[in-house]
Amino acid sequence: MSDVKVIKDGKLYFDGCDTTELAKKYGTPLYVMSYTEITKRLNELKEQFTDKYPGARVAYASKAFCTEGMYEILKQQGACIDVVSGGEIYAAKKVNFPAERVEFNGNNKLPSEIDMAVEYGVGRIILDGLNEIELIEEACKKYNKKMNIIIRITPGVAASTHDYIITGKKDSKFGIPLDEEVFMPIVKQVIDSEYLEFVGLHMHIGSQLFENDAFLQALDVLMDWAGKIKKEYDVDVKEVNFGGGYGATYIDEQRKPYSFFLDPMMERMNERAKEIGIQCPVAVVEPGRSIAAEAGITLYTVGQIKDIKGLRKYVSVDGGMGDNIRVALYQAEYTGVIANKAEEAKDDKVTVCGKCCESGDIILTDFMVPKSVERGDILATYSTGAYGYSMASNYNNNPIPGVVLVREGKSDWMVKPQTYEQIVQNNVIPDII
Ligand code: LLP
Questions:
Q1: Whose CA is nearest to atom 16 of ligand 1?
Q2: 408: phi > 0 → left, psi -120 to 50 → alpha, else beta; which?
Q3: How many contiguous H segments (helices) and E segments (strands) does the chain have?
């Protein structure tokens, strides 16, 4: 159990706050994010990466958990952010996130999103296809700006993780395939453009990774192409973005320190740069999950309990796949605790399900709880901070839960819960009915 989760007086405390009191005060279902845990991970990155390697940057992958409050924390902590949509850019602008610290990714950036990014003046655009060039140039012309371009490659490396979150293999919608006749002309076009500044290359091989081999293999491929770019165009790759993907602990996975991945990567990049005859490029990482996952828990109230004798006991909670789709989508596994009975013996095996009209709406399978579990108890599920709130939906017109930020015993809203009225606010009765 991480430092921010503490069991005391029979209850679960999270970053100094009694979670049963949080449930009372703010209602459930509720996402709770820990300021201490978020900043602890950012500090680890600082110590193990940005302070150690000159120029290195951390661009937090907003997709893991994007709220204005989160951006405010990142802004204060000096981090950069990776954004992938107009919506993320919009939220960043709302907190006056410094534009030069915003890096814009995405496999199909819309013309309107490119326009927004260029007007804002983002620090980097990660190019993910030939036809983006024209769109970026057009926007640059309109706003009289020059954009820094990082080209995303598809390194053709399969990382070992769930199939849906592998992104680096050749058959992928992400990145530019490394075929000589496809890739090199794109690089050339960026180099030659009066509106674009070719800065470097980007890769991202997958998510929830615990081993380094695939990262190093992909880096080798990337550096081969940095060599080709040097040889053919006499242009240096000045920056390399390693992407994200560093694994987090959900149940008992042993999370690796950032240095486990990044020290060997930096060493390899240095060696390869020497061979090619360029300066060692500046390194950038885009971690999302490893910063946000363990910083979040979800609180639910237990409702209906159905004991199907000899088969299974279902404990229903007031949320479900609308606030955590990862179980249904990736067969993701979680753990947690009955927060108000945290020290009682766990002598009953149950399946925790949500309230959505869908059999796959399961949160925990074969989960051990005290026999006394009953309506009104508070269930806390752990490590829900990444890809929980950000992937939430209004399925069944259930409101998206609010997010509370906790910090050493203090708490406040980060996102208020949706109201029924907000769910239907954009509904119209068509005139043609
Ligand atoms: N950079 C790029 C270009 C990415 O595509 C991603 C994640 C990241 C960084 C951050 O990766 P992380 O450090 O969070 O592993 N919804 C899935 C995860 C999808 C990840 C997509 N890209 C899940 O819930 O497991």
A1: 387
A2: left
A3: 12, 21
Other C-beta atoms lying within 10 Å of the C-beta of residue 236: 18
Question: Is the beta carbon of 168 within 6 A of some atom in ligand 1?
Answer: no
Residue 290 pLDDT: 98
Residues 116, 103: Cα–Cα separation, whole Å = 13
Closest listed residue to residue 83, CA positions, set 306, 268, 69, 97? 97
> Of 155, 157, 136, whose CA–CA distance to 147 is shortest?
136
Q: What is the DSSP letter of 224?
A: H
The answer to whether residues 386 and 293 touch, using CB atoms and an 8 Å cutoff, is yes
Please give the Cα distance from 299 to 29 (Å, whole number): 6
Tens of pLDDT, residue by residue over 406-418, are 999 999 999 999 9
Q: Are strands 312-317 and 362-369 parallel, antiparallel or unpaired?
A: unpaired
Rounded-to-integer distance, Cα 155 and Cα 169, Å: 7
Task: State in Å: Cα 244 to ligand 1 middle.
Answer: 7
Scanning 287-338, the segments in alpha helix (DSSP H) are 289-292, 326-330
Q: Is the pLDDT of residue 249 over 90?
A: yes
Please enumerate in sequence order all residues whose Cβ is within 8 A of that of 425, keeping only pairs 6 or more positions apart, or say none.
none
Q: Tell how far the Cα of 49 is from the centroid of ligand 1, in angstroms.
A: 20
The secondary structure element, H or E, covering residue 82 is strand 80-83
Q: Distance, CA 243 to ligand 1 centroid (Å)? A: 9
Whether ligand 1 lies within 6 angstroms of the CB of 207 is answered as: yes
Q: How far is CA 391 from CA 24, 33, 252, 350, 370, in A?
A: 25, 16, 24, 26, 31
pLDDT-derived band at 1 (thresholds 50, 70, 90) equals low
Compute φ and ψ for 213, nearest 5 degrees: -55, -45
- What percentage of the chain carries pLDDT values higher than 70? 97
Tokens standing for 387? 């890809």
Mean pLDDT of the chain: 96
CA gap 39, 47 in Å, rounded? 12
Q: Which of 424, 401, 418, 416 is nearest to 319 (CA)?
A: 401
